[in-house]
Write a structure and sequence with these properties.
CATH superfamily: 5'-nuclease
CATH topology: Rossmann fold
Strand content: 25-35%
Order of helices and strands: EHHEHEEEHEHEHEH
Radius of gyration: 16 Å
Number of helices: 7
Number of domains: 1
CATH class: Alpha Beta
Largest sheet: 6 strands, parallel
Distance between the termini: 28 Å
Number of strands: 8
Length: about 180
Protein backbone atom coordinates (compact mmCIF):
# COMPACT_ATOMS: atom_id res chain seq x y z
CA UNK A 1 0.00 0.00 0.00
CA UNK A 2 1.40 3.37 -1.00
CA UNK A 3 0.91 5.92 1.77
CA UNK A 4 2.80 9.02 2.90
CA UNK A 5 3.08 9.91 6.60
CA UNK A 6 1.98 13.53 6.14
CA UNK A 7 -1.01 12.88 3.87
CA UNK A 8 -4.55 13.55 5.04
CA UNK A 9 -6.59 10.35 4.74
CA UNK A 10 -10.34 9.85 4.59
CA UNK A 11 -12.00 6.45 4.85
CA UNK A 12 -15.42 5.92 3.29
CA UNK A 13 -17.06 2.52 3.88
CA UNK A 14 -20.04 1.38 1.82
CA UNK A 15 -21.41 -0.87 4.59
CA UNK A 16 -23.51 -3.19 2.42
CA UNK A 17 -20.82 -3.71 -0.21
CA UNK A 18 -18.08 -4.12 2.41
CA UNK A 19 -20.21 -6.68 4.26
CA UNK A 20 -20.68 -8.65 1.01
CA UNK A 21 -16.91 -8.64 0.45
CA UNK A 22 -16.23 -9.82 4.00
CA UNK A 23 -18.86 -12.54 3.72
CA UNK A 24 -17.43 -13.64 0.36
CA UNK A 25 -14.03 -14.08 2.01
CA UNK A 26 -15.46 -15.58 5.22
CA UNK A 27 -13.62 -12.81 7.05
CA UNK A 28 -14.52 -10.80 10.13
CA UNK A 29 -13.19 -7.31 10.65
CA UNK A 30 -11.87 -5.64 13.77
CA UNK A 31 -12.79 -1.99 13.26
CA UNK A 32 -10.39 -0.87 16.01
CA UNK A 33 -7.54 -2.46 14.09
CA UNK A 34 -8.77 -0.87 10.87
CA UNK A 35 -8.62 2.61 12.43
CA UNK A 36 -5.24 1.90 14.02
CA UNK A 37 -3.80 0.61 10.74
CA UNK A 38 -4.81 3.64 8.70
CA UNK A 39 -3.87 6.09 11.46
CA UNK A 40 -0.37 4.62 11.31
CA UNK A 41 -0.17 5.34 7.57
CA UNK A 42 -0.96 9.06 7.63
CA UNK A 43 -3.22 11.62 9.29
CA UNK A 44 -6.64 10.01 9.42
CA UNK A 45 -9.04 12.93 9.17
CA UNK A 46 -12.34 11.11 8.78
CA UNK A 47 -13.66 7.55 8.88
CA UNK A 48 -17.25 7.25 7.69
CA UNK A 49 -19.50 4.20 7.57
CA UNK A 50 -22.67 4.24 5.42
CA UNK A 51 -25.57 1.83 5.81
CA UNK A 52 -29.32 1.62 5.46
CA UNK A 53 -31.36 0.32 8.40
CA UNK A 54 -34.74 -1.36 8.48
CA UNK A 55 -36.60 0.78 10.98
CA UNK A 56 -39.71 -1.37 11.43
CA UNK A 57 -37.77 -4.06 13.24
CA UNK A 58 -37.44 -3.69 17.00
CA UNK A 59 -33.93 -5.12 17.04
CA UNK A 60 -31.67 -4.68 14.04
CA UNK A 61 -28.65 -6.96 13.80
CA UNK A 62 -26.73 -3.87 12.65
CA UNK A 63 -27.59 -1.83 15.75
CA UNK A 64 -24.71 -3.06 17.99
CA UNK A 65 -22.21 -2.45 15.19
CA UNK A 66 -23.61 1.01 14.43
CA UNK A 67 -23.52 1.96 18.11
CA UNK A 68 -19.96 0.69 18.54
CA UNK A 69 -18.72 2.49 15.42
CA UNK A 70 -20.35 5.79 16.42
CA UNK A 71 -18.73 5.66 19.89
CA UNK A 72 -15.31 4.66 18.57
CA UNK A 73 -14.21 7.15 15.97
CA UNK A 74 -16.50 6.61 12.98
CA UNK A 75 -19.05 8.97 11.52
CA UNK A 76 -22.02 6.70 10.93
CA UNK A 77 -24.45 7.76 8.24
CA UNK A 78 -27.72 5.84 8.03
CA UNK A 79 -31.07 6.14 6.38
CA UNK A 80 -34.18 3.98 6.42
CA UNK A 81 -34.21 0.99 4.11
CA UNK A 82 -37.32 0.31 2.08
CA UNK A 83 -38.99 -3.08 2.10
CA UNK A 84 -40.98 -4.19 -0.94
CA UNK A 85 -42.33 -7.33 -2.56
CA UNK A 86 -40.58 -8.37 -5.76
CA UNK A 87 -43.33 -8.63 -8.42
CA UNK A 88 -41.37 -11.35 -10.28
CA UNK A 89 -40.80 -13.73 -7.36
CA UNK A 90 -43.26 -12.54 -4.72
CA UNK A 91 -40.40 -12.48 -2.20
CA UNK A 92 -39.80 -9.64 0.22
CA UNK A 93 -36.77 -7.55 -0.64
CA UNK A 94 -34.99 -4.70 1.08
CA UNK A 95 -33.51 -1.69 -0.72
CA UNK A 96 -31.32 0.85 0.98
CA UNK A 97 -28.85 2.47 -1.34
CA UNK A 98 -26.28 4.79 0.25
CA UNK A 99 -24.21 5.43 -2.90
CA UNK A 100 -25.33 9.03 -3.41
CA UNK A 101 -24.84 9.93 0.26
CA UNK A 102 -21.31 8.49 0.24
CA UNK A 103 -20.46 10.11 -3.10
CA UNK A 104 -21.60 13.59 -2.05
CA UNK A 105 -19.69 13.40 1.25
CA UNK A 106 -16.55 12.08 -0.45
CA UNK A 107 -16.65 14.78 -3.13
CA UNK A 108 -16.98 17.49 -0.48
CA UNK A 109 -14.17 15.94 1.59
CA UNK A 110 -11.88 15.91 -1.43
CA UNK A 111 -11.26 19.62 -0.79
CA UNK A 112 -9.32 18.77 2.39
CA UNK A 113 -7.98 15.25 1.75
CA UNK A 114 -4.89 13.96 0.00
CA UNK A 115 -5.93 10.31 -0.11
CA UNK A 116 -9.44 8.88 -0.15
CA UNK A 117 -9.84 5.20 0.74
CA UNK A 118 -13.09 3.70 -0.50
CA UNK A 119 -14.16 0.37 0.97
CA UNK A 120 -16.40 -0.79 -1.86
CA UNK A 121 -16.14 -2.65 -5.12
CA UNK A 122 -19.25 -1.10 -6.66
CA UNK A 123 -18.55 0.01 -10.24
CA UNK A 124 -21.10 2.82 -9.81
CA UNK A 125 -18.38 4.73 -7.93
CA UNK A 126 -16.21 5.19 -11.06
CA UNK A 127 -17.61 8.69 -11.66
CA UNK A 128 -16.89 9.62 -8.04
CA UNK A 129 -13.33 8.32 -8.28
CA UNK A 130 -12.71 10.34 -11.48
CA UNK A 131 -14.16 13.51 -9.92
CA UNK A 132 -12.07 13.16 -6.77
CA UNK A 133 -8.93 12.46 -8.81
CA UNK A 134 -9.55 15.63 -10.86
CA UNK A 135 -9.32 17.51 -7.55
CA UNK A 136 -5.82 16.08 -7.04
CA UNK A 137 -6.77 13.43 -4.49
CA UNK A 138 -5.40 9.89 -4.73
CA UNK A 139 -8.00 7.13 -4.47
CA UNK A 140 -7.47 3.62 -3.13
CA UNK A 141 -10.17 0.99 -3.41
CA UNK A 142 -10.40 -1.74 -0.76
CA UNK A 143 -12.41 -4.73 -1.92
CA UNK A 144 -11.85 -8.23 -3.23
CA UNK A 145 -11.50 -10.20 -6.42
CA UNK A 146 -10.73 -13.37 -4.47
CA UNK A 147 -14.36 -14.10 -3.58
CA UNK A 148 -16.73 -15.98 -5.85
CA UNK A 149 -18.12 -13.95 -7.49
CA UNK A 150 -15.56 -11.14 -7.25
CA UNK A 151 -16.96 -8.07 -5.48
CA UNK A 152 -14.62 -5.45 -6.98
CA UNK A 153 -15.71 -4.27 -10.41
CA UNK A 154 -12.91 -4.31 -12.98
CA UNK A 155 -13.69 -0.76 -14.15
CA UNK A 156 -13.44 0.56 -10.59
CA UNK A 157 -10.08 -1.14 -10.04
CA UNK A 158 -8.78 0.35 -13.30
CA UNK A 159 -10.00 3.85 -12.41
CA UNK A 160 -8.48 3.89 -8.91
CA UNK A 161 -4.89 4.90 -8.23
CA UNK A 162 -4.48 1.81 -6.09
CA UNK A 163 -6.42 -1.40 -5.49
CA UNK A 164 -6.00 -3.04 -2.10
CA UNK A 165 -7.11 -6.67 -1.96
CA UNK A 166 -9.16 -7.09 1.21
CA UNK A 167 -7.97 -10.67 1.69
CA UNK A 168 -4.40 -9.36 1.96
CA UNK A 169 -5.40 -7.22 4.96
CA UNK A 170 -6.58 -10.15 7.08
CA UNK A 171 -3.53 -10.07 9.37
CA UNK A 172 -3.74 -6.29 9.79
CA UNK A 173 -7.46 -5.68 10.30
CA UNK A 174 -9.09 -9.11 10.67
CA UNK A 175 -10.75 -10.11 13.91
CA UNK A 176 -8.79 -12.55 16.04
CA UNK A 177 -10.38 -16.02 15.87
CA UNK A 178 -10.86 -16.17 19.64
Amino acid sequence: MAFYQDERIGIFIDGANFYAALRGLDMEIDYSKLLREFRSRGRLIRASYYTALIEDHEISPLKPLIDWLSYNGFDVITKPAKEFTDPQTGRKRTKGDMDVDLAVDALLAADWLDHLILFSGDGDYCALVRAVQRKGVRVSIVSTVKSNPPIAAAELRRQADNFIELADLTQMIGRDPS
